[in-house]
Write a structure and sequence with these properties.
Helix 1 (14-22) crosses helix 12, helix 4 packs across helix 12 and helix 5 crosses helix 11. Helix content is 20%, strand content 18%. It has 12 helices and 21 strands. It is of the alpha/beta class and 587 residues long. It has 2 domains: 1-143 and 231-329 and 501-587, FAD/NAD(P)-binding domain (3-Layer(bba) Sandwich); 147-182 and 332-428 and 457-494. The two termini are 25 Å apart. Bound molecules: flavin-adenine dinucleotide (FAD).
């Protein structure tokens, strides 16, 4: 049987295409290599090792059987790759922050700060073209102004004393601060007003319960239907919509979702003189059996490391050598303030406030549970603070040199758990550089072929990228001092690969892109990409998932009109929010 569309990967991007096309009546098969996580209250806990251990955690990259080995990915530098497999993908981890990209990364931008952006790798269309798709996704998830607590009061107070104005528009026009726009339902009823689990059950409590564990998959409040869980990771939003399309859409057809179904090959044939995608082979991760499925259109959404891996393992064309190249990661860094009073770091949505500096990037506050906090102090490219020859991290408005914090200093930092700390995450608008890339590893193959290798030349980024990161680190330290921090530490993080993009980039130039302006492969017809890898660049620094989902919505519309004689819908119909009571599917 031939399907209309096969989507590979049920993470941030794939379910968007699946839901949009199924709601227009197409027969869509959604294949996910990881687990289905159908009953989070039984499968998940708030224990950090249980969730985040990269070898055995329920959010690791690996098969759903936790006794089976995790999947190894090569990172040939001091770095850590944080990706989750399973329905929801890495949005199981994500904080739901959903800013729009800076306008300067799009074609046709004429602002005075144009030279601050990587214009050689701009979006191949104008910002205004994406706005209706942003609005559609914002209404669907939905995206709302974040609920805030103590840590936001502290952070925003510091931002205000830096002299920045408040941003009040969805579009970022100038350096400013604001509450996050995030995809976490605002607290209602008893949520956010009590820590008593007995009073935090749905429907007495709705939305975010302020549990502080956004990182570990959202199952709050207890007893809520899956599509009413607070965080709008795709397992709680787009996937339930895709599975119940006939219930809420006039022409809807339910998506077929197969988990533990790892795609190992994309097939092509010559059609009308063009190499054309015809289907995929997938392997059951539980039985080892392989299956072949055909479709009119294939959409790759396995994420920034896995999509190029699948492409290269399938032997698909790569005439300009850009498959996997141009990997961007926001050149992250972490600056932490130590306070005398409670900062509320363990409570509320993990990150609910931000500052944006168009041309440089962004800052956001981040509260993490204790083990992740300790991990964040241990990840540095400057060695241990003040020790050995490597203890020569950069100096600035932080205390001493940047670097890892260990021993008595670390003990002192964590003496009050995390609630005397305030972390600022630095998101740099990094340039697309061809030598930062995903390629195939020479390490032994796994059951799905050659494994991916993510290469980042961390110490030789472009001048603009390096300068932007230093600028943002300084602003972060100044903000923390103005907020009342008595000490400030900068980590000078080694690459923490959690915002990763642009390894299969779309672009205006055929010389340095894999996808055309419709997100279709330049060399294989009917083959599209709809995950972070399709992004042309790092968006200038803003968190990527909303833009990936807006682009995936646009890509779904292009597929519908190009291959199925459909008509565009984006400006003609009101979107259905994923919280609609007709969408009550359990996964
Ligand atoms: C701690 C943390 C916090 C974050 N916070 C934010 C935030 O606040 N805002 C934001 O915008 N972004 C955030 N992100 C990033 C966000 O999670 C990603 O942008 C998003 O998940 C990327 O979507 P994707 O579709 O590219 O990949 P993924 O979400 O990784 O999904 C890919 C899916 O495809 C599956 N897959 C891969 N290969 C195959 C194959 N061959 N066959 C079948 N299935 C396959 C994978 O198992 C996975 O489920 C955060 C990330 C982390 C780790």
């Amino acid at each position: 049987m031939s399907r209309d569309v096969i989507v590979v990967g049920a993470g941030g991007g794939g379910p968007v295409v699946a839901k949009e096309l199924a709601s227009r009546g197409l027969d869509v098969l959604l294949l996910e290599g990881g687990a289905r996580h159908g009953d989070p209250r039984r499968e998940w806990t708030h224990l950090e090792n249980d969730a985040n251990n990269p070898l055995t955690g329920f959010l690791r990259a690996g098969p759903s059987d936790r006794d089976a080995p995790a999947w190894l990915r090569e990172t040939p530098q001091n770095s850590y790759l944080l990706q989750a497999t399973g329905v929801g993908g890495t949005t199981l981890h994500y904080y739901g922050n959903s800013p729009r990209a800076f306008r300067g990364v799009f074609a046709g931008y004429t602002g005075a700060d144009r030279a601050m952006y990587d214009t050689a790798h701009a979006f191949p269309f104008r910002y205004e073209e994406l706005v209706p798709y942003y609005a559609w996704v914002e209404a669907t998830l939905p995206v709302q102004t974040a609920a805030m607590g103590v840590k936001e009061t502290v952070f925003l107070g510091g931002a205000e004393r830096l002299g920045l104005p408040v941003q009040t528009t969805k579009d970022t026009l100038t350096a400013s601060f604001r509450p996050q726009e995030n995809a976490i339902l605002q607290p209602g009823g008893t949520a956010g007003r009590t820590g008593d689990p007995a009073r935090l059950r749905h429907p007495q409590a709705t939305g975010c319960t302020f549990c502080g564990y956004c990182l570990q998959g959202c199952m709050e409040p207890a007893g809520a239907p899956r599509n009413q869980a607070a965080k709008r990771s795709t397992d709680n939003s787009y996937v339930p919509m895709a599975l119940t399309a006939p219930a809420w859409s006039r022409h809807g057809r339910a998506v077929t979702l197969l988990a533990d179904a790892y795609v190992t090959r994309v097939h092509t044939a010559r059609r009308s003189g063009r190499t054309t995608a015809t289907g995929v082979t997938w392997r059951s991760v539980t039985t080892g059996e392989t299956h072949r499925e055909d479709a009119k259109v294939v959409v790759l959404a396995g994420g920034t490391t896995e999509t190029p891996r699948l492409w290269l393992n399938s032997g698909l064309p790569n005439p300009n050598g850009w498959v996997g190249r141009g990997l961007t990661d926001h050149h992250l860094d972490f600056v932490t303030g130590v306070f005398d009073d409670d900062t509320g770091s363990s409570r509320g949505p993990s990150s609910a406030a931000r500052c944006d500096f168009p041309g440089y990037g962004s800052l956001e506050n981040v509260g993490v549970p204790p083990a992740m906090q300790a991990f964040s102090f241990a990840l540095s490219d400057s060695g241990i603070r003040g020790r050995y020859r490597n203890g020569r991290g950069p100096t600035g408005p932080w205390d001493g040199r940047a670097g890892r914090v260990v021993g008595p200093e670390l003990k002192e930092l964590l003496a009050h758990g995390v609630d005397r700390l305030l972390n600022v995450l630095i998101l740099t608008g990094d340039d697309v550089e061809p030598d930062n890339r995903v390629t195939l590893s020479a390490l032994p193959t796994d059951e799905h072929g050659q494994i991916p290798k993510a290469v980042l030349r961390h110490r030789s980024r472009s001048r603009r990228t390096a300068d932007s990161r230093e600028y943002l680190a300084r602003r972060a330290a100044e903000l923390l001092r103005k907020a009342g921090a008595r000490r400030v530490h900068r980590m000078d993080w080694a690459p923490l690969l959690l915002h990763i993009h642009s390894s299969m980039r779309m672009g205006a130039s055929a010389a340095n892109s894999v996808l055309d302006a419709d997100a279709q492969s330049r060399w294989v017809s009917a083959l599209y990409v709809a995950d972070n890898s399709a992004l042309p660049n790092a968006l200038g620094g803003p968190n990527p998932t909303l833009t990936t989902q807006a682009l995936a919505t646009r890509t779904a519309e292009k597929i519908f009109t190009t291959h199925f004689s459909g008509t565009p819908w984006i400006t003609d119909e009101p979107p259905v929010p994923s919280t609609d009571p007709r969408i009550s599917a359990v996964l």
